Amino acid sequence: MTVILPPDYKPSEDEAFMNPRMREYFRRKLIGWRNELLDASTETLQHLQEGGLLAPDIADRASAETDRSLELRTRDRARKLISKIDEALERIENGTYGYCEETAEPIAISRLEARPIATYSLEAQERHERMERTHRDD
């Protein structure tokens, strides 16, 4: 079933939660974000392949190595984010997207707009983070 999405569509609290248009909206948002990350990753790979560490000056080599390290860390973060985006797309397919993993309650649309890969409601996320802090202090 193809869902027609008006160009100016924005999900709202006034419509049925995770109706077909809302799911399609978030699916497109996630795919767009994923494509941006993949494009940036490709650019990083090309840059790393082009850039040699043959600078004659030790300071230039150190600077280049620092830049390379930063790019690799950024690329690793993007890889993890792409994995979370793929998981969110899977949840859209199986009908669990937008619902808190802990409470099964709908996650606020404003939260999903800001963080489309969210798996917890704001309240559950805060509880989760408090628990992590508590256990980390042990």
Pick out its properties.
flat; 2 domains; 0% strand; Four Helix Bundle (Hemerythrin (Met), subunit A); 138 residues; mainly alpha; 4 helices
Written description of the protein model:
With 138 residues, this protein is mainly α. The chain has 2 domains: 81 residues, Four Helix Bundle (Hemerythrin (Met), subunit A); 40 residues, no CATH class. The mean pLDDT is 88.
Strands, total number: 0
Largest sheet: none
Structural class estimated from helices and strands:
mainly alpha
Percentage of residues in strands: under 5%
| Overall structural domain count | 2
The CATH architecture designation of the largest domain is Up-down Bundle
Number of DSSP helical runs: 4
**Fraction in helix:** 55-70%
**CATH class membership of the largest domain:** Mainly Alpha
